[in-house]
Amino acid sequence: MNQKPDKETLQRWHNDPNNWKWGMIYFNKEDKRLFPPKRVPMMGWTINFANKWSIIAMIALVAAIVVLMKCVVA
């Protein structure tokens, strides 16, 4: 029973103001996507702060950038 939500469900979640904290932080426990589109989709993606794997992925990405920057500078 682990099926993907349809486009209508994704759109409903995206348009629901209750899923956006302070108008810019996406928080939806039902949405399993790591990086859903921002409120204005052409602006890129955001993190689903209700999904622990999103937060872990973002921390790993930032850590990788920091390590790469230290390697380049050194």
Could you characterize the architecture of this molecule?
The chain has 74 residues and is mainly alpha-helical. It has one domain (7-73). Helices cover 42% and strands 5% of the residues. It contains two helices and two strands; from the N terminus they run αββα. The chain has helices at residues 7-15, 52-73, and strands spanning 20-21, 25-26. A two-stranded antiparallel ribbon has the order 1-2. Strand 1 and strand 2 form a beta hairpin. The longest helix has 22 residues, at 52-73.
Task: Using brief descriptors, characterize the structure shown.
5% strand; 2 helices; two-stranded antiparallel sheet; mainly alpha; elongated; 74 residues
pLDDT average, as an integer? 90
Cα distance, first to last residue?
50 Å
Regions with little confidence, pLDDT below 50 for 5+ residues: none
* Fraction of residues in β-strands: 5-15%
The H/E string reads: HEEH
Instruction: Please work out how many helical segments DSSP would assign.
Output: 2
Major beta sheet, specifics?
Answer: 2 strands, antiparallel
What is the CA-based Rg, rounded? 15 Å
What class would the helix/strand composition place it in? mainly alpha
User: What is the total number of structural domains?
Assistant: 1
Shape: elongated
Quantity of strands, as a count:
2
Sheet with the most strands: spatial strand order: 1-2
- The percentage helix is 40-55%
